[in-house]
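Chain and conformation:
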Amino acid sequence: MNAIVITKDERSRMASIGTARNACKRPEMSRRMSDVFSDSEVDVLGMMGEYAVAEYLGSSVDESIHMHGDNGTDLTFKGQTVSVKYNHRWRGFLMVEERQGDDIHSGLVNDLKTDLIVLSHGKCMPPKTCVCRDSGGIVVVLAGWLTRDEFISTASHRDLGLGGRYIVTCDKLRPMHEIWEL
């Protein structure tokens, strides 16, 4: 298991970026639905996942803020574009939102525009208290990764109450150390 400890100061910096990114979005552009986290909190958690993966890969986090979101790429590694997904649940699913026009059987998944996709997750185990909202440091676990083609061929379609999602369970992910072989 690969885990990155994010200090309170690093967390504060990622929270500032995530909050600023969320503030730039038009309300009608927000697609997130969560009974647990606000849109802003989801952006902050995503930034922590991005930061942890960037630290592991020796890459840098894209700290830019755009008026209408980003282009779907969180960072690059060895010339490959990388999307990072964060799930606050321990060993949670790697999920990509289903969008209108998707056809996963022909490889069209509009919300997955990168060469690689990485799942990072927290240590929350509902119904216990969620530790992702703590204001101190946090441990982010790097669960694993897949190429875009591997994700498309492995994902199943489910609606977990948030609309359609393409999901892959942690046991189907490549171990993080294999990413160095690219």
Summary: The chain is about 25% helix and 25% strand.
